[in-house]
Amino acid sequence: MSGHNKWSKIKRKKGAADAKRSKMFSKIIKDITIAVKEGGNDPDSNPRLRLAITNAKGVSMPKDNILRAIKKGEDKDSTNYEELSYEGYAPHGIAVFLECTTDNTARTVANVRAIFNKYNGSLGKNGSLSFIFDRKGIFEFELGDRDMDEIELELIDAGAEDIELEDGQVTITTAMEDFGIMIKKLEEMNIEPESADLQRIPVTTESLDVETAKKVMRMIDAFDEDEDIAAVYHNMEMTPELEEALAEE
Q1: Over the stretch 43-96, which tens digit does the pLDDT of each residue have?
Q2: 133 - beta bridge partners?
Q3: How confident is the model at residue 11 (pLDDT cuts 50, 70, 90)?
Q4: Residues 127, 236: one domain?
Q5: What values do phi and psi take at 157, rounded to 5?
Q6: 199 closest CA partner among 10, 2, 1
Q7: Fewest beta carbons less than 10 Å away: which of 168, 176, 194, 219?
Q8: For 186-204, b where at least 16 C-beta lie within 10 A, e where not — what string?
């Protein structure tokens, strides 16, 4: 079992993510709405909806919010969302990949371009970063009273490429094609993940000095605060020194 996977070296601390719960709720509501419009309101026959509901429970979204999102998806006259992606570079060659869910493409691309320009980055062509990021399945759940040694082999058999245990939190990384297999395995093991999704993981990371990295993070945070941007991925390494400096801000 690896002590730290590639993703753990660049992700922000869990507390930073918890502070943005309202945006997490907004993203999941959009995911549920899109899932219902695409595949119906029955999670048993709609894998995307089932996954969205799992993620909603993982961030303690109230049941009423989930039901309202499902009803919104059932309404033929409700907002239609489009899923888009944009790629580019922050200063100092840091690659940035944006996944967006929007009801107004013109607004979203204008905002994305404005943020790149404001922070001296550059918007690139889609596909230009395909060699930098791999799509991986990322699952997180609380270990609880389970024995890590006992469940580890089962997880590996289901396609786990990396398993990280930190402060009682288990993070599993799988290949994209093993994503569905791992979902079924966790269901068989009666493990309900706090989150399960496909993420873009950098093949390699770039390390910058703290002051330079903080400037890049201002761009990353600006993207992260935009309501149309569902996920922001980058290949800058979140060193302990950088995390400490950011925590002090």
Answers
A1: 999 989 999 998 898 888 999 999 999 999 999 888 899 999 999 999 999 999
A2: 202
A3: low
A4: yes
A5: -60, -25
A6: 10
A7: 168
A8: beeeebebbbbbebbbbee
Q: What is the span of the domain harbouring residue 33?
A: 14-74
CATH code of the domain covering residue 33: 1.10.10.200
**The one-letter amino acid at 21:** R
Task: For residues 132 and 178, give the distance between their C-alpha atoms in angstroms, rounded to a whole number.
Answer: 20
DSSP code of residue 215: H
Show which of 57, 74, 91 is a domain's final residue: 74
pLDDT tens track for 110-139: 999 999 999 999 999 999 998 999 999 999
Task: Report the distance separating Cα 30 and Cα 73, nearest Å.
Answer: 9
Q: What is the model's pTM? A: 0.84
Split into its structural domains, the chain has a count of: 2
The DSSP line for 118-170 is: HTT-EE--TTTTTTTEEEEEEEEEE-TT--HHHHHHHHHHTTEEEEEEETTEE
Are 33 and 115 within one domain? no
Q: Are residues 20 and 38 in the same domain?
A: yes
pLDDT band at 154 (very low <50, low <70, confident <90, very high): very high
